[in-house]
Amino acid sequence: MPTHLTENFSRAIVRMRRAFGEYDFDSHWKWGSGSQLLVGGGYAQYILGWKKYARDIDLFTISPRSRFFDHIKPADIKFVTKNAITLVNNVQLITTKHENPELLADSFDFTMSKVICNLNGYLLYKHPEARTQYFKKILEYTGSDNPLGSLKRIHKYTNQGFRLKESSIELLYEDLAKCIKSRNDPEGFTPETTQLIRGMYDKLNVKVLLGGKEIPLDLYKEFLNAN
Amino acid sequence: MLDQIKKKIEEVEKLLEKQSNCVELLEIFDEVTLAGGAISSLAQRRTPRDWDFFFKDKETAELFKILILPDNAENFKRFETSAETNGFLTPNALSFPGRIQFVTGICGYGAELVNKFDFLHTKGWYTKKDGLVVTNEIMEAALYRELHYKENDMPRKAVKRALKNMRNGWEIELDNFIEMTMIAAFNKGEITNAYASN
């Protein structure tokens, strides 16, 4: 496997050392290598030299659960969500687990983000289209359990000049519709945006009374369209 | 801004006179609404990409089409005009030289018409009777290139337009973007052609 131990990677290590200042980070790092702590998405793009700057470091683990996670002191935790522990210094430990780097990359919502390195700077997996799409500024949405989070990223990347692929939009709508129906709890938004999303759940999940039973409005609309 | 609009109106009237000697054409034109991107572009001191004129109802639009088009005019084909270049016909509009477009797919008059539009900056309108109607908010949205989505019948079309405009430097607040896309996700029945919902 080619090594990409670039200056960017060294900077990443320095930042992580800072983030875990109270610990002997290097020993954790070694554990990290042993228990397969991985860097994915935006920060991996940064390590590979694609982008000049990346604010957040997302660290992933593949099963079994990294021992690294057991050594976080509460003082270093900024906040915890269902899928991640966010530490000081913009380091995020993603707690969902995957069998191997390819499956981990598969779980990412955009093709250009499907890049995985390990903590020694080795490129472990790269989607064949990831680099091309990144440099051509193509945003291909490939599905997500958290389409609202993807929507936030679409907003960000479109502002940076990325073009959402036409074929992605329908899939995004499908995932969003599922999310609205199941009222997924919005994560990673400001309280105002969270409130707006919950309001939209109420607004869109309208039900009609049919034969004394409550039927979702969109199902009823589909029935009317079909007939 | 108003001078440019009046100049264009005169240009269209001359074009119509040349195109046909039917006086009813000018009578119909007296009641059209100029709306859409043209007023927003003028507010930004840019040349409008299209000057869109809308008819008050479907029947008037249909009559206008019959009166102005040559008998052999077909959809998605060019047709002869009195000007040097040809016009183009689609199911939703008739395009004439000089970036003049008569929209037939969506109809309405003044405020009732622009209420069907998706973004605030496109809600300015002009009619011969009422003159130019544009609020400070509309002008500000156009000047500062800000997208403010107002719920309408074609949210999926609005999402596409928003994504395109954002790449061209327009801004939309994250909350408004989320709201628009969530509405679009739930709007399966939307007809995807521009101006085709009526």
Please provide a written account of the structure.
Chain A is built from 9 helices and 11 strands. The radius of gyration of chain A is 20 Å and the shape is globular. Residues 1-5 of chain A have low confidence and may be disordered. Chain A has a 7-stranded mixed sheet with strand order 3-4-5-2-1-6-7. In chain A, strands 8-9 form a two-stranded parallel sheet. Chain A has a two-stranded antiparallel ribbon with strand order 10-11. Chain A has 227 residues and is α+β, with helices and mostly antiparallel strands. The longest helix of chain A has 17 residues, at 166-182. In chain A, β8, α6 and β9 form a beta-alpha-beta unit. Helices cover 42% and strands 20% of the residues of chain A. Chain B is an alpha+beta fold. Chain B folds into 2 domains: 2-143, Beta Polymerase, domain 2; 145-198, no CATH class. Helices cover 41% and strands 16% of the residues of chain B. Chain B has an 8-stranded mixed sheet with strand order 3-4-5-6-2-1-7-8. In chain B, strands 9-10 form a two-stranded parallel sheet. In chain B, α7 (155-167) packs antiparallel against α8 (174-185). The longest helix of chain B is centred in the first third of the chain and has 18 residues, at 2-19. Chain B is globular and about 50 Å long. Chain B starts with a helix and ends in a 13-residue tail after the last helix. Mean pLDDT of chain B is 86; it is low at 191-198. Chain A binds chain B through residues 148, 151-152, 154-155, 158-159, 161-164, 169, 172-174, 176-177, 180, 192-193, 196-197, 200, 204, 218, 221-222, 225, and chain B through 156, 159-160, 163, 166-167, 171-172, 174-175, 177-179, 181-186, 188-189.
